[in-house]
Input
Amino acid sequence: MVKALFFVILLFGVRVCAFAQPGGGCFAEVVLDRHAVFVQQPMKVTITVLTSTWYTAPLDFSNIRIPDAFILKFDRTTPGVFQRGGKQYAGLQFYFIVFPYKEGDFIIPPIEIVARTPPPEGSVSRKIVVRTPSRGYVVKPVPAGSWFVAKDVSIGESWNRSLKDLKVGDVVERTVTIYAHGTLPQFIPPLPKLELGFAATYWSEAQLKDERNEEDANGRMTQRVVYLLEKEGDFALPDVKMSWWNPNSCKLFARTAAGAEIHVKANASLGMLATLKDSLDAGANIKPAKVHKQTWTIGGVAWYWAVTILAAMIWLSYYIVRMLLKIPDFYKKRHAVYLGSEKFAFRRFMKAPPFLPDLFSAMYTWWDRFARPKGAFSVHSQLQDAKFMHIREGLCDDMRRRFRDNAKYIKSSCIIKKEWKAYRRKMIKDPSVTKDYRISIYQQTRGYMGNPIR
Output
């Protein structure tokens, strides 16, 4: 009685715990990869929506708004099975990256998520609104002297012309490209606009390109500067230096695109210099560039390359399958050729039973396939040679004389096979022997049926 009462209480407690979960068995979790970041440092926010049953429709999220921060959403939702409190839940997981641009203490507010899932006690799906718990984080100021936060930065540059043989009035265009890993392109600062005493400088607006992938944010900034050379002499085009703060190592790094030493010659015809300067002044006001989103990728590879690789793999698989399907037919033909060869016929002859009809049939079948001396068309004509009299005697006289004595007959047939084997080995090494083993289908058929041709 006490055990039964305890079991009933236990079941009631489990039932109450199931109903005590938010949403009747459906709830959400929020995990930050870090709770303290620098200004512009990305912070990954992972949201997992769990249910004790299953989902019947995709999740619907409300707008995610976080004060004083940029939000980079990733649309991919990953399903999975999770263990919580000793129970198993089906879950959908997604994440977004937060880029704070102001220091202070902040809170990620609750986010409403609409899910469609059956309750724990039923199988009919229903609409459930789940609210994520709020999470706080701290944004620290960037250390003095570093106003740019990124994981890594690379700088490249190019010139529109050679820097040799320059003269007053020439125009040189410099293009600088900065690639930043782990940040948005909006955070890449424009190049400092330095004034030069020997040239007029004209700066274009920075061209920004969003090159995010499935795991992180990346950005590229391209900026052009035009130098109109106004004085003759030896001068130095300035270096381009970019400093950034790495939040992972908490260190300040810098990279530099080296400038160039130039020699500007005098120019006798400077009548067009004023006109050229007016044209550059008029074209200096370039419209700000729009931020371009990176080409859609599949597994980190551009979609067109992924399609090309997939097509190549399909073609290669088709070619390999075709080759594999030809292997049985190839070996079947090889085996058929082997069955009609002299080597196979001789092996049958060597394994033929020691009885006159079978032995002769196997011998003649092999002889039809054997490379024999010119003019030797029959066993009898070949054995007329005095060198092979012992074989002919064994075939014609000795075999008939011992036909009735089975033991002697078997012994005689073994001796004959041995002599033929030595004869074959000698003929194969003889250069005068014709090496054409081909015979007619008629001869092959008759030979395999055991009918002697001679």
The radius of gyration is 46 Å. Confidence is low (pLDDT under 50) at residues 1-23, 285-292, 435-454.
